[in-house]
Amino acid sequence: MTRAALPVLAILALTVSACATARPALPVPESAAAPAPVEGYDWFYQQDGDEARLAYGLEQSDDLRLGLDCRRGSGRLEISAEATAAARELRLESGGETLRLPARAEPSEVSDGVLLNAAAPAAAPVFQGFRRTHWLAVWDGDARQAYAPHAVSVPNIERFFAFCG
């Protein structure tokens, strides 16, 4: 090998090693992206005696997107969510966890869709994900609606789960 070929080989080796270490960016799964709060919508906590509700929607309105209800210390949640299709399943997602629940559908009083109702343990992994990430998503067919709190209402999530047990 000649001395003149050494610089060319060095450049070639650097180019090959650079290409070998470069990796294409992987798409971020939709479930991994934290959603942003939506203006006017938030998580609201209400307690009345031994009953509590954590609801996502517009304050002081019938516009409820998702509601979680429980009795003090019961460890059990009643869930209600708006849906556009007459689905018989409620699918929730948070923190990399999903939960599929058989649901009762009834006509919605505030939209053209239905209100899905289901029950689940408060300790289900999807709700533990919600406590960690502070957002909860509902799937309606192939559409995913993620509900994130504004900073001021983040403590409401833990207050609700502490109350429910």
Plain-language structure description:
This protein has 165 residues and is an alpha+beta fold. It has one domain. The protein is 22% helix and 40% strand. It has a 6-stranded antiparallel beta sheet with strand order 1-2-3-4-8-7, covered by helices on one side. A hairpin with a 4-residue loop joins strand 3 and strand 4. It is globular, with a radius of gyration of 24 Å.
Main features:
single chain, 165 residues, alpha+beta, 4-stranded antiparallel β-sheet, 3 helices
Write the layout of secondary structure elements.
Blueprint: H1 5-21, E1 41-48, E2 51-58, E3 64-71, E4 76-83, E5 89-94, E6 97-102, E7 104-107, E8 114-121, H2 125-133, E9 136-140, E10 143-147, H3 154-164
Antiparallel strand pairs: 1-2, 2-3, 3-4, 4-8, 5-6, 5-9, 7-8, 9-10
- Give the overall shape: globular
Distance between the termini: 76 Å
Radius of gyration equals 24 Å
Mean pLDDT score:
84
The number of helical segments is 3
- Counting DSSP E segments of at least 2 residues, the number of strands comes to 10
Measured as a percent range, the helix fraction is 10-25%
Strand order of the largest sheet: 1-2-3-4-8-7
Number of domains: 1
Q: What is the chain-wise order of helices and strands? A: HEEEEEEEEHEEH
Uncertain segments: 1-31
Helix-strand makeup class:
alpha+beta
Largest sheet: 6 strands, antiparallel
Beta-strand content estimate = 35-45%
